[in-house]
Design brief:
Helix 2 crosses helix 3. The N and C termini lie far apart (about 45 Å). This protein is an all-alpha fold and about 150 residues long. Helices cover about 80% and strands about 0% of the residues. It has 7 helices and no strands. The chain folds into 2 domains: about 80 residues, Hypothetical Protein Yqey, Chain: A, domain1 (Orthogonal Bundle), CATH 1.10.1510; about 55 residues, no CATH class.
């Protein structure tokens, strides 16, 4: 994956795409720092984790810039976000994930809080990094919904 990023950086340099060049250089710098910290070459999973952190930072920045009325900076961050997301594997859509979870709940006849762990283990027998992140987010949402329903 690193080779693809480096190749894309060369293409962006040749095409004069300043935003793309800057974003890819920052990403490669983050990957290099992570590699040095690990003391070895990074696996694709570790590279994906670094990209996910960069994506999360961009999303948080967009939120802060929007709240601060700096739409110009929010747009710039959104462009960088789109560039970074291109390096992440495509995940399931939210509706597909929700349908899988609902189906699993019905099959397992799970009760909200008590059986959520069993349901998610059944749905994602061997979760990838992408599915783990989606699963964690949905677990938080469902737990918050269950607490709201009880309260």
């Amino acid at each position: 994956m690193r080779a693809r990023i480096e190749s894309d950086l060369k293409s962006a340099l040749k095409a004069g795409e300043k935003r793309r060049v800057g974003t890819l250089r920052l990403l490669l710098s983050s990957l290099q720092n992570e590699r040095i910290g690990a003391g070895r070459e990074l696996t694709d999973g570790e590279i994906e984790a670094v990209i996910r952190r960069a994506v999360k930072q961009r999303r948080e920045s967009i939120d802060q810039y929007t709240k601060g009325g700096r739409e110009d900076l929010a747009r710039a961050e959104a462009e960088e976000l789109a560039l970074l997301e291109a390096y992440l594997p495509a995940g399931l859509s939210d509706s597909e994930v929700e349908a899988e979870i609902r189906s699993a709940v019905e099959r397992a006849e799970a009760r909200m809080q008590a059986n959520l762990v069993d349901v998610f283990d059944h749905v994602y027998a061997e979760p990838t990094e992408t599915l783990r992140a989606q699963r964690a987010e949905l677990e938080r949402e469902l737990q918050a919904g269950a607490e709201t329903a009880r309260g």
